[in-house]
Amino acid sequence: MKRWLKRLAVTSLIAATALSLTACGQKQSSGSGKKVTIEYFNQKKEMSATLKEIIKDFEKKNPNIHVKETDVPDAGIVLKTRMLSGDVPDVINIFPQNLDFQTWAKAGYFVDMTHKAYIQNIKNHYASKFAVNGKIYNAPLSANVYGFYYNETAFKHLGLKVPQDWSQLENIVKKIQSKGKTPFAIAGSEPWTLTGYHELALASVAGGFNQGNDLVRYSAPNGIKLSNKYIQMDLNRLDILRGTAQKNWQGASYNDQITTFTSGKALMMPQGSWAAPLINAQKPKFKVRTFAFPGPKKGDDMTIGSGDLALSISSKSKHKEAAEKFVAYMCTPAAMQKYYDTDGSPCTIKGVKQAGANSELGGITKYAFTKKHIVFLAQKWTTENDFNTATSNYLMTGNKQEWINAMNTAFNPMKATNK
């Protein structure tokens, strides 16, 4: 899942490429009776096997259409390179909160889905959350959510209950440590794994998506200061992870983090719903459950996420009709039930049967598509790489002023566009 969190700055070449594509683009219908091949560019590599099964189901119903699924390492970077070169896949799994998606949509790269019938299959008007200039260019079929995985078996043994507010989580950490056990599994070598945690921390202490961005993105240049009480509260949320993770966490990878948790060596793990298939594949010998990010007060808990399996269609596809048919099929319960049964992340498609609050992910998925499910703050950022690095470095050093300087360095360039 890490591909969707890796962003690079979008250059002015996008607009020029869009213009050149307009001149050479052609539309060819799949209704001619000839078999056509469309490319589906996938960024959910962990779900590749299930997607291939769904594609086979689609091809049985549509024998004149072959769907070629493309899976590559560093998919986000590869996709950017292909888009800039004009080699645009027919159907793309692209994360709609990203700045590159928004820029490409404005440049005319994607089909306008606003009035397509299949968009009506998406509940809670979720597609509208990612509209660009009032138009829908992406069909988000599932959403991710972020919070804490925990070892419910160990919690019961230690007499611990899910925290209702931040102070209760602090007490849980102290009690776990007092029993000689490790509270958190962390992947220090992959800062993206903590993006959701830190963005939730900012939103939680400030009061929501807009307030969190007002604190860092839309404040004055060099406006992130230690004297700000909300910044102090944010640092407090980061501090709970310092000295409470597994040994050698600084060099741990994402896979190491999951193994540490599933082996029982750490009792909690801050991570997104995308980790569930990997956790289950390791068959932990305890009951896995989740809870949302605790707020300052009871009832203020929340989760964060965005469109996960989210599809856009190239406006210059030579087989646009076939691409539309494929996306329309993906928007059906038949396709997404099979997907959900493996992935477990909240599904947006009406008619898909989903697990309840007592399920593995239920502690965070119960808030999906509600006011407690905010979009990643980085929807308003040009990049989050420096933010991620600042977060990771602070956990390693604890140097507050160094962190302040890094945060201002990360956000000051974005503030040049503030009005």
Please, could you describe this protein's structure?
The chain has helices at residues 13-24, 48-61, 75-85, 99-106, 152-158, 166-178, 195-206, 209-216, 229-239, 254-262, 276-281, 320-330, 333-343, 362-365, 385-397, 400-411; strands at 36-41, 65-70, 91-93, 139-140, 146-151, 268-272, 288-291, 303-305, 310-313, 373-375. It starts with 12 loop residues before the first helix and ends in an 8-residue tail after the last helix. It is an alpha/beta fold and 419 residues long. It is built from 16 helices and 10 strands. The relative contact order is 0.19. α2 (48-61) packs antiparallel against α13, α7 (195-206) runs antiparallel to α9 and α15 (385-397) runs antiparallel to α16 (400-411). α2 (48-61) links the parallel β1 and β2. It is globular and about 70 Å long. It has a 5-stranded mixed β-sheet with strand order 2-1-3-9-4. Strands 6-5-7 form a 3-stranded antiparallel β-sheet.
